[in-house]
Amino acid sequence: MDVGICCREVEKRMRRLGLSMSKLKAVFVSHEHSDHIKGLRVLAKKYSLPVFITKPTLQNGRLFLDKHLIVSYTAKEPVTIGELVITAFSKLHDAADPYSFVVSCRGINVGVFTDIGTACKNLVHHFSTCHAAFLESNYDEHMLEVGGYPYYLKKRISGEKGHLSSKQALEIFTTHRPAYMSHLFLSHLSKNNNCPKLVGELFNSHAGEVKIVVASREEETAVFRIELSTTIELSTTEEKHQSTKARQLVLEL
Ligand SMILES: [Zn+2]
Ligand SMILES: [Zn+2]
């Protein structure tokens, strides 16, 4: 999903996780903002990856992709890549044609939900089906308010087509998480208007059995396996936890 960092940085992070670049089979582009497409052209070309992208996003991103790599998608038709089924849904964000995605495999759903201004019906519906979700927790309302951003930018970020605040994300989590959700990855944190420690504390105090992970802006998040009944964490230090019910290995994030 998206390539907001340069190709070399993607390669570096994959290597540190012990993952081969050959694991990549396709890229889905959510919208044209530069923090989502910066490394796309080079990565797609170098690894000959099909790029699933809508026409308005392609045009507004001024992306000069090789024609034979471009594939269109719609919210109506899920796309199958190997064993994964990717479902797109439209969302509220100030881009030409923005989408978020749910990746499904053998009954497990993993959502990738960032760059969302409002907890719209689509988001709530898909979030409530996820075993794991990568959810935007972009800004702390107080930090944004008292911070140095110009007024118009503060309005844009907090507007209904901007980003989710930590408070909004928490509300989505506490109100709409299904009983079977095992992991919540808080993501797309603002460098200037949020703090990973604050986000971790906020969500952990409401997490119950759900494992809370705050994704870093600077480095890769560990690889997790999401399973129907239980979960194994594969940490970056190769420390592997044996699962009591180690069955149905379904999806790697
Ligand atoms: Zn973004
Ligand atoms: Zn955006």
Question: What key phrases describe this protein's structure?
Answer:
binds zinc ion, 253 residues, three-stranded parallel beta sheet, seven-stranded mixed beta sheet, alpha/beta, 9 helices
Q: In sequence order, what are the helices and strands, one letter per element? A: HEHHEHEEEEEHEHHHEHEEEE
Q: Could you estimate the helical fraction of the residues in percent? A: 25-40%
Question: What structural class do you assign from the helix and strand content?
Answer: alpha/beta
Poorly predicted runs of 5 or more residues: 236-253
Shape: globular
Biggest sheet, strands in spatial order?
4-5-6-7-8-9-10
Describe the structure.
This protein is an alpha/beta fold and 253 residues long. The longest helix is centred in the last third of the chain and has 11 residues, at 166-176. The chain has helices at 7-16, 34-37, 40-46, 55-60, 121-127, 141-146, 151-158, 166-176, 196-204, and strands spanning 27-28, 51-52, 70-71, 79-81, 84-90, 99-105, 108-113, 132-136, 183-187, 211-214, 223-226, 232-234, 251-252. Helix 5 links the parallel strand 7 (108-113) and strand 8 (132-136). The chain is globular. It has a seven-stranded mixed β-sheet with strand order 4-5-6-7-8-9-10. A three-stranded parallel β-sheet has the order 1-2-3, with no helix packed on it. Mean pLDDT is 92; it is low at 236-253. Bound molecules: zinc ion (ZN) (2 copies). One zinc ion (ZN) binds at residues 33, 35-36, 115, 188. The site of one zinc ion (ZN) has 5 residues, from loops.
